[in-house]
User: Fold this.
Amino acid sequence: MILASQVWTQIFWTSALAGGLVAGVPIMFTALGESISERAGVLNIGLEGMMLAGAYCGFLGAYYGHNQWLGYLAGIGAGVLASLVMVVLCVWLGLDQIVVGIAITLAGEGLTSVLYQNRFSSSQPQLPNVPSAAIPGLDRIPVLGKPINGQFPLFAQPLIVYLGLGFALLLTWIFRYTNVGLNLRAAGERPDALDAAGISVVSTRSYAVLATGALTGLGGAYLALAGAGGFQPFITQGQGYMAIVIAMLARGRPIAVVAFSLMFGVALSLSTLLQIAGINLAPEVVNIIPFAAIIVALVLFARRAYLPPALALPYVRGAR
Amino acid sequence: MSSESTTGGGIAAPRARRMRSLRAERLVDVVIRSVGPVLLALGAGALLLFALGRDPVTFYRAVWDGGVASGAWQDSAISMAPFLLIAAGLTVIFRANIWNLGYNGQFLLGAALVSGYGSSLVEHVPLWLAFVLLFLLSGAVAGAWTIVPAILKARFGTNEIITTLMMSFIGIDLASILIKGPFHDPTTPLPQTAVIPFDKMLPPIPGTRIHIGLLVAFAAVIVVHYVLTRTSWGLRLQIMGANPKAAGHFGVSVRRLIVVSFFASGFLVGLAATADIMGLWGYIRTGWNPAYGDTIIPFVFLARLNALAVVPFIAFFAVVYTGGDLAAQQVNLSSDFLYVLVGLILLFMTVIEYFGRRRDLGASYLSPGLRQSLLSGFGRRKASE
Assistant:
């Protein structure tokens, strides 16, 4: 009996954390990207489309290049390309960010679905497993470190996960202690002050949106490469929107983004978890939980959700 | 608002000359800005088809054959009913400069309840009463689904894009739970509701196959247009959309108006659910999510948030929607190609808006509040002009 309960806890906790990582990392990358552009004053509603572009191109890169890094690179490239549309239309020309964002999402959904089904609908190829790198030492700690039936080794994640976590720390440092971070925040808080200081609001925001595109594309590529092991039309299932919410709730703080994303990842992988714990719930009920959690969080902390004052407003020199 | 924006645009042309040519310009402007994006998107779509190795001519001809020719126009007209009602709902809320993007959840929740209660309701009460009750039920439920985002927006100013989307995801799953649970048809293992018999559905308009849901939709569009343009409520809505703070100073109860306009928007989306279920499908199965609203948004903007002007656009889209499905099958392409076309229309719309504004071609697609940001987006160019 004692042994059984030990196994239960081990499986439960390890898979809770590992499942949270697998499901949470794509959202984490995307939400980190969104927090950059939100801080700079650009609301990117097109994340869903950019993520899909990243996922499809990441899949293409890994499939034809036989290398996960080529896949990630292709995903980043696709995200940057998609965000270029946003840079030109929203930052340079000052067009409505929400309309353009919806357009990017629709076009991304349609284009990736059509292209995938055009070429792969009969074969539906799967990608090989992404090799994971174990952290020496940690992978041997008693309960959490051990793989279960060869699955869910918590401290043996694909290298890109560690890079992502490191990037979140780097981003915190950039926001807090560098001129680049100060410029980014000023572009969202007081763009006129930034302009008066002699720094171009337009180029600051352009770089921010391009960085968002790169991170979103990477998140999509991770979803296809490590999460699903292939591409499916509409594979993101609203994760782009969740990333927007997380960036908003985290108020642009990268560490909070990571924490919220991983919590969200746990919520997304709840259905497997509950099965392990022996609780059978309809998948729809489980699916509702993360969204309901966000609504509850918004109801409780609505006043604390903070958005930069210049968010979604194009910058006009001299206008009031 | 309009005089402020025209003078604010930094135009060098003398005012008198502009007044003279205003009418002609406005006509040209309407054509360019409304039809232009559609034509450009169809052209770009043709190029894309060509790049995919498909014949664009075959595709577009198949759209015509499947959506207009030889009685197919009646199928397009049938699909217009829910489209128009959703478009009316979006028009109301966009006029207030609020984004209700939760239409999918609102629609499906209404649809689940209508198909769940409809099959028993049509047996027990007079048919006309059943239809009225179902329309009211789906409208009320879909409207109620906007309450949380509305109150969060009204009280705390929480971004309604986020909250409506989250409520939409919840609504979609909740509809699925309802269909599998209380509304499940016990005679079939499939996750679907009982099928409403054909003679108990919305009757056709005499002489056609088109159900009377289309008439309901037209009536709703006319009512919405009247309310938005001829009543003080419509004016208050527009003032709030332009500037909530100023509206508050004018004595408009902004908080209540936000909640009421949200409910009205959801109510109209809910009507669309009854029109679609009781007019066309007769039952609902889990996993069915037509996501009509996603593709209707661009046309609401193209019609410049005018409830009547949206009708020809929706007619056009209904043809593309009905014929596009068959055409995609014919050239062996995923019907998600439609999303690409609609996304392209939106992108071209914003681009044409840019060129149009540079020539000062009169009014915009977007309500003053929405276009405020658009109009003022050219600080750098303005300085050089």
Chain A has a mean pLDDT of 83.
